[in-house]
Amino acid sequence: MSSPLDSGAGTELFASYDSDFQLAYSEITQKLDDIPNLTTEQQKPAIKAAERAVEEAYEIVSRKPEVASPINPSL
User: Fold this and answer.
1) Where are the domains of the chain?
2) Average confidence (pLDDT) over 25-49
């Protein structure tokens, strides 16, 4: 049984998911780093924005095809 990641196109697809996730991760990190420097009034919408960014990252991870385990016990 082959996986969508078994071909060159699969490798490109994985790279695309990885790139999307890295971008989302950077956005989350930036938003979280900014929160302590905000006023109390500014923090609530900033936290909501960070939560939305986490949800987007979760969506990226959940649409990513299954990746074979790096350890193959049959070898």
Assistant:
1) 11-63
2) 97
